[in-house]
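=== RUN LOG ===
request id: a7f3
mode: sequence -> structure
chains: 1
length: 225
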Amino acid sequence: MKLILFDIDGTLLISRGIGREAKRRAMLETFGQVGDLDQHVFGGKTDWQILADLLAPFGKSPADIGREMATYERVMARHMREIQDAYRADALPHAMELVRTLRDRHDTIVGLVSGNTSMTAAIKLEMAGFKRDWFTVGAFGNEAAEREKLTRLAVERAETNTARSFDGDDVIVIGDTLADIDAARAIDALAVAVSTGYTARGQLRDRQPDFLLDDLSSFLTEVMV
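=== RESULT ===
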């Protein structure tokens, strides 16, 4: 049995600006500040970490962010719903077909590890044509600042749901950033990088993932063998 954990942005879909704008509105409402939001690079970071980075100059610690996270998540989801008709999110090539194929197999469990909050992850997936319940387990950026912790949490949830252990090569982490590769390495999982996001292929290659794919079309033939 394999546990396959997908990142969302740059791996399953591309959302074109809605996340940044929803963050702007939610940060202003919740914290009264947005910091250097327009220049901030989101790739691979959790929403918790993004907030901590942006609000540190205003005296907010990661612990402070954690205390406000439940409120922030609800506020951001509300704003994202309000503006979603003005934006689009598109499934990346072969992502939809792969998820559907994997969820129909008897030897795989399909899950998510995303820096998005759980509520906004569901909205983005819906916008791109995915159904949230296609993914049996998940861990999200409102639950920890560090991506490694989210990956561990997703594995723990899969083990609880299935009453079985997932170790080493039983876990496959798929993402488009260096942080995804590092998070896989931290739990001794297989690291699969796809060059469909914003990280240059050369940078991904230099981090030495177990597999580096142009897109998800070759996942079944190259990884699931």
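=== NOTES ===
The longest strand covers residues 108-114.
The chain has a mean pLDDT of 97.
=== END ===
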